[in-house]
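Structure first, sequence second, as always.
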């Protein structure tokens, strides 16, 4: 959070709707610590405004004239990196563009109000929270501008004896879409079942799973009740009110979806999934906690470590927001701290050290 004495975070709003420009300006200017310094109605105007006004954060509607929102995002992240928050229409065809934007490196996304399930009050709340996440990521983008080298991850030897690995469990939030893709791509050759909880609302997780399948060559799907995990298969927890748990039934790993209250502020929750893996698999699993704001996954990763599993977190230098990994590190839930592009190799090394590999 920003202190009252800090200079306000400068925000540029890029949206072709004058109504949305006015609404977002009103919301942002009323949020402590944020100030709209300009608006733009097209990709060209957006790029010019970025160069002239030097905002700290940009909000971007992908459905700009000529559908050039993605082109502007790619240009910004390549030539003048800074946090870009996608403000998107919910679900439908727009979900593909939103996930593509997250893969390119957009910090986060929120859904535009539609007057029904996505209300103005909810939009105000989520916009301010997303801007806070974007603000927290500014240091990483500043390092990109300066081409600062990423320090090698510190990796310490695990203190527990190895076992057989039956599952890789991954949790992520803000910045996690491209991070999950990198890790899964680098783990695909192992053919070990993978389960992913990435904080996303309904309407996006099935498309996210489809894009992961295309990028990794794995059988990736949105998890359904009773799905049996097999080698070369991965599941993504569906967005919505149900938590994903992994159970062992008659020697098979099975997905269970259960409604329940928010856990660590989320549904689905990484903590719930990690705890279920700890109960069902003990030392026969690897837990990986990636970039994200908050604490979701920390307690669950600790449960996995106590059950004998190997646990890794993404290094702070390579996180978009180093909240969830840092929280896990602070409570002693972590065996290894690894740069994003080294996680696949680190897990492969761990599993290679383990004889008698067993898959579900």
């Amino acid at each position: 959070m920003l202190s009252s004495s800090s200079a306000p975070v400068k925000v540029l709003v890029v949206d072709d709707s004058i109504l949305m420009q006015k609404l977002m300006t009103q919301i942002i200017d009323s949020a402590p610590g944020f100030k709209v310094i300009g608006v733009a109605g097209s990709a060209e105007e957006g790029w010019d405004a970025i160069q002239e006004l030097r905002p700290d954060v940009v909000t971007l509607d992908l459905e700009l004239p000529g559908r050039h929102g993605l082109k502007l995002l790619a240009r910004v992240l390549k030539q003048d990196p800074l946090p870009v928050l996608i403000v998107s229409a919910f679900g439908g065809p727009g979900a593909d563009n939103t996930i593509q934007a997250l893969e390119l490196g957009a910090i986060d996304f929120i859904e535009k109000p539609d007057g029904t399930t996505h209300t103005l009050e909810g939009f105000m709340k989520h916009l301010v929270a997303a801007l806070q996440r974007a603000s927290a990521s500014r240091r990483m983008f500043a390092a990109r501008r300066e081409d600062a080298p990423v320090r090698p991850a510190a990796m310490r030897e695990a203190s527990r004896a190895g076992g057989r690995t039956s599952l890789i469990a991954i949790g992520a939030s803000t910045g996690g879409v491209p991070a999950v893709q990198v890790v899964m791509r680098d783990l695909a050759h192992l053919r070990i079942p993978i389960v992913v909880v990435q904080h996303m609302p309904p309407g996006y997780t099935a498309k996210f799973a489809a894009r992961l399948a295309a990028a990794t060559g794995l059988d990736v799907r949105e998890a359904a009740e009773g799905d049996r995990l097999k080698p070369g298969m991965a599941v993504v927890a569906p967005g919505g009110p149900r938590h994903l748990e992994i159970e062992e039934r008659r020697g098979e790993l099975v997905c269970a979806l259960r409604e329940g209250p928010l856990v660590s502020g989320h549904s689905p929750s990484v903590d719930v999934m990690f705890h279920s893996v700890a109960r069902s698999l003990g030392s026969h699993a690897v837990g990986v906690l990636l970039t994200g704001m908050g604490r979701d996954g920390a307690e669950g990763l600790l449960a996995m470590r106590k059950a004998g599993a190997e646990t890794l977190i993404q290094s702070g230098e390579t996180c978009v927001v180093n909240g969830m990994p840092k929280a896990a590190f602070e409570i002693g839930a972590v065996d290894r701290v690894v740069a994003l592009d080294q996680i696949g190799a680190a897990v492969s090394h761990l599993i290679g050290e383990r004889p008698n590999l067993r898959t579900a």
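Margin note: Confidence is low (pLDDT under 50) at residues 148-163, 353-360.
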